[in-house]
Each structure stands twice: as C-alpha cells, then as structure tokens.
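User: Please predict the structure of the protein below. I'd like the answer in structure-token form so I can feed it into my own downstream comparison script.

Assistant: Understood. Taking the following sequence of 623 residues as input:
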Amino acid sequence: MEMNFDVVVVGAGHAGCEAAAASAKLGAKTCLITMDMNKIAQMSCNPAVGGIAKGQIVREIDALGGHMGEVTDRTAIQFRMLNRSKGPAMWSPRAQCDRGKFIWAWREILENTPNLHIWQDQVKEILVENKRVTGVITYMDVTFKARCVVITTGTFLDGLMHIGRTKLPGGRCAEPPSLHLTESITRHGITAGRMKTGTPVRINGTSVHFDEMTEQPGESDFHKFSFMGEPRNLPQLPCWITYTNKQVHDRLKASLADSPLYNGQIQSIGPRYCPSIETKLVTFADKEEHLLFLEPEGTNTNEYYLNGFSSSLPIDAQLEALKLIPAFRDLEVYRPGYAIEYNYFDPTLLKHSLESKIVDGLFMAGQVNGTTGYEEAAGQGLVAGVNAARKCGESEPFTMKRDESYIGVLIDDLVTKGVDEPYRMFTSRAEYRILLRQDDADARLTEKSYQIGLATSERHNHWLKKKEAIAELENFCRNYSVKASLINEGLKALGSTELQRGCKLIDLISRPGLTLDNLSTYIPALRNKLEAIQERKEEITEAAEIRMKYSGYIERERELADKMIRLENIKIKGKFEYASLQSLSTEARQKLTRIDPETMAQASRIPGVSPSDINVLLVLMKR
C-alpha cells in the first residue's frame, strides 16, 4: 500500500468525517486516520444534532454538499423545530438520533467515497520542512506523506477525565488520549491552551418510572435536515421531562468540596452555555429545581441520556442525588457523568480557510480550534477539507462571509476574536440572521458550492427546480388581485380585518395569521396553484411565504450587509507595519500586528480596534 496522499485528515469525529469526504469529492487523494473505525462520527455527548443556530449550520453543511444532514435524517428517532413561537430567522431544527446507526451511516458513506482511504491508527507527529507540512507519523511508526494535513482530534489531545478526585487519561470514556501530537505542533510556534467540557450520566431505562415524568413527543411534519434524501424512516421515540428538587441539591452541595471544578483540580475553562449541575447550583443558588430531559440513545437499547445533569462529582454523589428524584428512585446507570480537559490551539493563528498562518498546508477544524458542539465542528471540517483539496490543486481558498452563512460567522469569530472559553454558536452572534434562516440555506450556498465542484449536479438541479417554483409562486401572489367582496367572509373567519377595497394577494400574505394554506380555502386560484406543485409542496410553500412576509426586513438587512461588504472588499493584509503607526491606539497596534487581518471589515471586528482606528487605516489606504 502506498502511503503518499494529497490530504491526510487526523481524527474521524464530526469535523474529520466532513473534511475527509469533502477533500476526496474534490478529487484529492485523501487518507482519514482514526484510532477506532467503529467509533467514526461518535456522538461523544448527547446523541442529538441541531438546536438553536446549530440546526442552521447543519442545513448549511447539507446545502454545500456535506453529509451531516443526510445522516441525521436517516438515523433520527425524534425531530422538532425549535423556536416556532418566534420569527423564521430563529426557527432551528433539532433531531435526536440513534447513536449506533449514526456511526454506521457515516461509515457507509466514507467507505464508498472515491479517493478516500481509511487507516486505523493514531498520529503522534506532524512532519514539517521549511515551515511547510509534509506528512505525519503514527503510533505504528507508519509515515504518511501529504501535501496538506487537517487536524480534527476533538477532545483527545492530552485528554484527562475527572470523576470527583479520580483522574483518568482519556479522550472519551474507555478511549485513550492522543499524546505527543500537541508538542509536535507547538514546537513550530503554534500556541496551545486547555479547555474543559463534560457529559452526563447514562441511565438504564428499565429502572425509570416513566409514568411519573412528562412525555415530550416529536413532530412528524415535512421538516427535515437534508434538502435531498428521504424523510425519516426510523421509529419516532419520545423524550421525557422531570426536575431536580431541594433534596437533590442538598446532596450535591454536600459533595462540592470533592468537585474537581471547585477544589482546584481543574484549572481550564468550561462551556458557559452548557454548565454542569454543580455549576448551576453555585451560579443559580436561589433556584430550587432545574429542568432535566431524559433522551433515548437508540431504537434497540435501554440506554438514556440525562440532558441537564452534566457532572464531574463523585459517583456516589451523582447516584444518591438522582435517586432523590421520584421517577429515578430505583435508578440503575451504565456509567457516571465526567468532565474532560483537553488541548486546543489559538484560532487567531489561522486564516479564514482554516489553514495555519505559521505552518503552510496545516489545517485545523473542530474542538482543537476552541469550539464546542458537533455542528460547529462539522461546519469547520467541511471548510478545512475543501480548502486542503483546493490548495493541492493550487486554487483560491473557499471562504464564506458573515452574511452568507453561520459557518462564515463562526470561522470569522474564531480567527478574528479568538476564544477564552469553548465557543458555541447562537443566532445572536450573527448580525444578519434574517438572511441566514434555516429554510434558505440552499438559496445561499448551493450555487456557490456547485461552482467549486462540491455540490453535485443532482443537488444543483434540485435547487434550480425549487428556486423556479418559489419564484413562480411569489410572482403569482404579487400579480393576483383579490376582491374584497369575495374574500371578506374568509378574512372574518380567519380573525383578520376585512378589506375596504381590493388588493394584491401578497398584501394579505404579509398579515399575521394569514398563510398561503389557510387563504387557499377561500381563493380557488391559489388552491389550484398550490395543488399544481408536484414535488416538495410544503417546503416550497413555506419558503415563498417567508420571503413574502418578511421581504421588508430581508431587504433592509441586505442593504446593511452590502454596506459592510464594501469594507470586506478593502484588502489590507501586508499593506501596513502596524507597530509603527503611532496614530493607532496601543491595543490596536498590538492586536492588528498579531492577527494581521485580511480586510478592513475583519480589522473592524477585532476586539480593541476602535472605529477611530479604522478611520485612520481608511485615510492611510486613500493615500
């Protein structure tokens, strides 16, 4: 077997799988190295995909030609669209998945991807010559030559697990850490740090009194993650809701002295937005209960995941506290919750392509860049894999702006602002979230992906047909005149104000509470128009309706984004010796020198660079 490749991807988590598949599909001879082929795309924590802003990222991955959305739909055992009470910019799909089937669905894709080879081993060293990566060496002392290397090792770099005062080396429960690789990378001038995350107890469902919990069913409408593929076909299972209580809190508090988070054992920073139960007790000391979700791990297992009870307390504290919840009084568990510390690398030392600024041809994606979450990792992995392949083909980097995707926001935040805690994506991080809805990811990205050869012609044609159908429906609503005498009875029945005179159908669509579907009951021409849509009727109708209802907001946000694009088009990399510009603030000189932004817009987003500093740079650019 020949060990020479264009791209080597280290690690087969969510970032590594997307990176390897994208690289291979773009024609690069790719090798994916993983320590265990039976744990490819393992869902280390909750077996769920999506959520607030994360669901939008998965839709974007799918629109670009990635696989996370497709695999999620194939293995989903519960689906819900979150934030339905808010506007469509906030709607976020989420699915509970069958953990085991998720792994094998991904493995099937990877094993049948041309140009992609899988090797089971661990990487201990990257090879660098003249500041350019040339390959890797594994624990088996196999040397893989490569023109580009993508590091996607997740929580495995010097991973250390904590359960009370017990410490165990590992990147995940029962899996060894990755040693030596961090030192191999940092010796070239790349800065590393430590972060912490955690996971809850896993519960035997046969020991739970489900009749004392609140059932939370899923949804069964047309929504799914992938714009392609088939609807969900696995049995759909409920989740269950319960609460902690004062007795639970008292038992947990009694063991805080043994918590590695509070006894000095853990020094690194954990995720702000996914706190452990002990952190909740300290931070929200006045609360007498906390919400818990019991979520199934699969269709053929009794294992359940207890969402909301991440912990690194001693085992006896976890179990005794949980048994004080009525539904868990006879509780049996498969394993306790634990915390894990791991290494990450400073993401400000990366370009927007996720290539290192220090070592040519070295790319990084996922938790090694300081993020948390499967979706954030997968989005980065796809971008890193695409750009590694494009670098091998001597093509320009593929990047996305902040008004094009949540992935673009994520990467820009990482390389521009850096991280001081595990980064999690939220809709609030995107200034153009009305443009970045989950329903229009294919409108934003499929054409762009098709141009570089990642999205297939089948996917592209799929989008073109949908685009045409949406436009046709919008044009119909803009041009169709509605007479007051024929619609007022319907408006009254729908609880909407009656018309004084006729109007265009689109004017009715813009009203709250009125939809294409309920108006079609009273407008035969609209009903006929909707019935004429042959494929994906609900998806097309929803997309057209959102565009019409929110057209004013969309246009206004588009104008704001276009103004910022003017600054994005001003390239400043390599044009200034920032340290010598005394007209800039000291902080601005230091941070601009360290990050060396590509554009004026990126410079404006660096914390500590003020509007006056940007004005100074604009004046100098004019000169």
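That's the full token string. The chain has 21 helices and 21 strands.
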